[in-house]
Design a protein that fits this description.
- The complex is a heterodimer of chains A (405) and B (472).
- Chain A is α+β, with helices and mostly antiparallel strands and 405 residues long.
- Chain A contains 14 helices and 19 strands.
- An 8-stranded antiparallel beta sheet of chain A has the order 15-12-14-13-17-18-16-19, with helices on both faces. A 5-stranded antiparallel beta sheet of chain A has the order 5-6-10-8-9. A 4-stranded mixed beta sheet of chain A has the order 1-2-4-3, covered by helices on one side.
- The two termini of chain B are 30 Å apart.
- In chain B, α13 runs antiparallel to α14 and α16 crosses α17.
- In chain B, a hairpin with a 4-residue loop joins β5 and β6.
- In chain B, 37% of the residues lie in helices and 19% in strands.
- Chain B is built from 17 helices and 18 strands.
- In chain B, the strands form 4 sheets. Chain B has a 7-stranded antiparallel beta sheet with strand order 15-12-14-13-17-18-16, with helices on both faces.
- Classes of the chains: A alpha+beta (405), B alpha+beta (472).
- Chains A and B meet through β9, α6, β11, α9 and β16 of A and β9, α7, α8, α10 and α16 of B.
Chain lengths: 405, 472
């Protein structure tokens, strides 16, 4: 079937849009939303299974399928409005290119997701992978004003809009952000931007983990709007101890007093990084997550953070941890088998903490699911939603595990 | 619906006192905050707790009766209206604050808790609930969730969806689902985000967990007078583009200022100006001072005639009074007031204000503007007397023209009031058929029988096409 399928994909999307991936699977990268929708429509009609890909730099491109559908050719930066602080960008554009383009216009997108800077924007949105800046600027969903999505059967839907406030109709955007592609393939994004901030200070404090979480809680209590307040495990911070990293962004008059207060602290030895070193520090922490084959995400209320980190340590080892010391969002990366993660998920669920499998080889994703077990009644809703957006289950996305819990 | 039979069954659940069937009693629920739509429910039931809500929902499921959930009825889209074949489910008795967790900055509340009451309860702990719709002293948090309500301070802090982390929902068959988590991390797909703003069409919320914010150390309010609306609009764009994110950035036009100054809410603000801009900055003192200097410079550069700065709470309240009481003051101009709620990209504000003025002049209407300028969220307020059918027609035409102009400018037909019954007709202009049908698919996931708040958001012909598509 592969040759016929290869030829058919070429007919629909143009011969230059189809290639074979390293495992010999046809991979089509349509260069327009319409063409991508046609591919999905044909897959729906022919019962072909689709593996969704960006640039393959976050989730392994290993889901079993009849062909791979990549957004990498949908990479146009369609519009950037400095006056409105809004951009329209196709999902296949790389984060790094978006960053450079916006920077040239005096703007930025306040997200710092883990992984490679060449990751596509669509990948960040579909997996809702926020980084340390979630402390000051919110999770990924807060930056997405609207989007276009192609359903598993090839319908093109618009969700949200291009304005910062909008309650017209149901908020389909929220379903797509963090939906891992189970409800469609995001093709275009309308994003909320910010003007570049004139000053950016990073300060680090090394020490025992529980002492750092205590200090972080004291910082949170000050009410100062930190851009990031992140706790890194020794392996991720490349140090001998845990590291608490504080990032302040804004006008120099606004951030320098707090930076000076921290440096002047007699009880803690904060040290401030130069801008170059700070850029390198945050970038290495982002990329460092990729060193583990498995990445999971959890969220605890602040006074449960220590207990959650202890639990992680006991169940799957210290690993590479990046924890929002002010937000309670925790990312763990390392090596862990299905049994361990399943048990961890059971234990965290009992503490009312959801566990999302962000990144793992297909076998683990298939067995455990990105989300795994839902609370009572929710699985039924999610199943019906999938049916509404992908009626014949063409999109090979393991949001639920096959192992059960 | 046999009202007597249904009333009898529901009385068995909530007690006869909490089922209303008399015409005079039902009249209270005939309208919400929008004067152009009225509908009398078949009966009203007021459950006291989650168990009663579940039992009521099961009874209605059993009888195949539609329902409309309602909070304080302060909505401005006709979204909480029920017709005589429908039961109105008032949630105002579920009004307990279940807990405030100061360490984790969370509150658990029932849906009937009044918005402002939560901030009052959190204040001694140094916290507040940020979304602050104009009706915050009356509107309920359940209603805020249904409409994804906003308010002046949402410019910096975000709207309701940015503050709700978890929900307990009773679905139309009486089953209960818990969505989200106390920290805010999604438990599966973001069903909390999907539910917020669903206008009561997915189910009934019985518990809400929200994020609270620390009360800022320093707050500064700046009022600036402009002699031209366009200059004020351009200043808004300049402030936003500067990188400063004010806590609030509001605008009132001359018509609105005059109405306020002629009312008991008068504060002595000038009425010879074309527009007043209110800018509020909050945060650490150093930050507020730095931002204030920048904003004041921008206001002057764009031609502000006079700038007044208030730091103390009483002085700030005085500057805010006109804005907060504007709708009340406008209510004096004529028997009826329609408040529109369109959104435009912020850079379009100067042009759209010109277009609204042109529509006002051409149709001979009294239109006042008081709105969330920083968000581009317009509230053109049309004063009229609905007993005059010809005037009402012109009001309808003006509303349509304003909405169309905002959509043409790349905006949205509603920023915080919801579509409800009022703006259904514009939905096909805002979304493709495929998108509208997908929304109806989502409604069916939560409400397979289509009994939750029927006849809202989607025009009849769209629902008909959708049903045909599914029958094919």
């Amino acid at each position: 079937m592969s040759a016929a399928l290869f030829a058919r994909l070429g007919e629909i999307a143009g011969p230059g849009s189809v290639e074979k991936d390293p495992r010999g699977l046809p991979r089509v990268a349509p260069d327009s939303e319409e063409s991508l929708a046609l591919v999905c429509r044909e897959a729906h009609a022919q019962r072909w299974r689709i593996r969704i890909e960006g640039r393959g730099s976050w989730l392994p491109a290993d889901a079993p399928a009849d062909f791979a559908l990549s957004t990498r050719s949908l990479d146009r930066i369609v519009a950037v409005s400095a006056a409105n602080l809004v951009a329209t960008i196709q999902a296949g554009a790389s984060l790094e290119r978006v960053r450079r383009t916006l920077h040239d216009a005096g703007l930025w997108l306040a997200i710092d997701p883990p992984g490679n800077p060449e990751r596509t924007l669509g990948s960040v949105v579909a997996t809702s992978t926020a980084g340390p800046l979630r402390q000051g600027f919110g999770p990924v969903r807060d930056h997405v004003l609207g989007l276009h999505v192609v359903t598993g059967d090839g319908r093109v839907l618009q969700a949200g809009g291009r304005v910062v406030k909008n309650v017209a109709g149901y908020d389909l955007t929220k379903l797509q952000v963090g939906g891992f592609g189970a409800f469609g393939i995001v093709t275009t994004l309308h994003l909320r931007l910010r003007a570049l901030l004139p000053a950016d200070a990073t300060l680090l404090l090394a020490g025992a983990r529980d002492r750092l979480t205590l200090i972080a809680r004291e910082l949170v209590a000050t009410g100062i709007p930190y851009a990031a307040l992140e706790l890194f495990s020794p392996a991720l911070a490349a140090g001998a101890e845990w590291t608490l990293a504080v990032r302040l962004m804004g006008a120099p008059e606004a951030i320098e007093p707090e930076a000076a207060r921290l440096i002047g602290s007699t009880s803690n030895s904060w040290h401030r990084l130069t801008l170059d070193r700070a850029t390198s520090f945050w970038s290495q922490a982002s990329r460092g997550i990729l060193a583990g084959a498995v990445t999971i995400r959890l969220g605890s209320v602040l006074d449960g953070l220590d207990e959650l980190l202890d639990l992680l340590h006991q169940q799957i080892g210290e690993g590479l941890v990046s924890a929002g010391a002010g937000s309670g969002s925790v990312r763990w990366s390392g090596t862990a088998g299905a049994d361990r993660i399943r048990e961890l998920r059971r234990l965290t669920a009992a503490r009312e903490i959801p566990l999302t499998l962000e990144r793992a080889p297909w076998d683990l994703r298939r067995r455990l699911g990105h989300f795994g077990a839902y609370r009572e009644g929710v699985g039924l809703l999610v199943g019906r939603l999938r049916e509404a957006f992908d009626p014949t289950e063409r999109l090979q996305v393991a949001i639920e595990g096959s192992d059960g819990d | 619906m046999n009202v007597e039979e249904v009333a009898h069954a529901l009385s068995g659940i909530v007690g006869p006192r909490w089922v209303r069937t008399r015409r005079a009693e039902l009249a209270t629920f005939r309208a919400d905050g929008l004067p152009t739509h009225e509908s009398t429910p078949g009966l009203v039931v007021l459950p006291a707790n989650r168990a009663e809500v579940i039992a009521v929902m099961r009874q209605l499921e059993h009888d195949g009766i539609s329902f409309v959930a309602r909070g304080a009825g302060t909505g401005l889209s006709g979204g909480a209206l029920a017709d005589p074949t429908t039961v109105l489910l008032s949630l105002t008795r579920l009004n307990r604050i279940l807990g405030i967790d100061a360490v984790n900055r969370r509150a658990r509340v029932e849906p009937g808790v009044v918005n402002a009451r939560l901030s009052e309860a959190a204040a001694p702990l140094g916290l507040f609930y940020a979304p602050d719709p104009s009706s915050q002293t009356a509107c309920t948090l359940g209603g805020n969730v249904a409409e994804n309500a906003g308010g002046p301070h949402c410019l910096k802090y975000g709207v309701t969806t940015n503050h709700v982390v978890a929900l307990e929902v009773v679905l139309t068959d009486g089953s209960v689902v818990r969505l989200g988590s106390a920290q805010g991390e999604c438990w599966g797909p973001d069903l909390v985000g999907l539910f917020v703003g669903s206008e009561g069409m997915f189910g009934v919320v019985t518990e809400i967990t929200v994020r609270l914010e620390p009360i800022p150390v320093s707050v500064r309010t700046i009022a600036a007078d402009f002699m031209a609306l366009r200059a004020a609009g351009e200043t808004v764009t300049a402030i936003i583009a500067s990188g400063v994110v004010p806590a609030a950035l509001e605008m009132m036009d001359q018509s609105c200022l005059k109405a306020v100054e002629a009312s008991i809410y008068a504060t002595g603000a000038p009425t010879d100006i074309a527009a007043l801009l209110l800018v509020e900055l909050d945060g650490p003192t150093e930050s507020v001072e730095a931002e204030s200097a920048l904003v004041e410079a921008l206001l002057r550069r764009h031609g502000a005639r006079d700038i007044r700065v208030a730091v103390q709470a009483l002085d700030r309240a005085r500057l805010w009074q006109g804005r907060k009481k504007a709708f009340g003051a406008l209510g004096r101009l004529a028997p009826d007031l329609v408040v529109q709620d369109a959104v435009v990209p912020r850079s379009e504000l100067p042009d759209i204000l010109d277009r609204i003025a042109a529509i006002r002049d051409r149709l001979g209407l009294q239109i006042s503007n008081v709105f969330h300028a920083g968000d581009g969220n317009l509230h053109p307020c049309i004063s009229f007397d609905r007993r005059d059918p010809e005037l009402s027609e012109r009001v309808e035409l003006a509303s349509r023209e304003i909405m169309t102009a905002c959509l043409d400018a790349g905006g949205s037909l509603t920023g915080e009031h919801g579509v409800g019954a009022d703006k259904m007709a514009y939905m096909p202009a805002a979304f493709t058929s495929a998108t509208l049908h997908a929304m109806l698919d989502v409604k069916r996931v939560f409400d397979p029988g289509g009994r939750a708040n029927p006849g809202k958001v989607f025009p009849t012909h769209v629902c008909r096409e959708w049903r045909r598509g599914h029958a094919a």
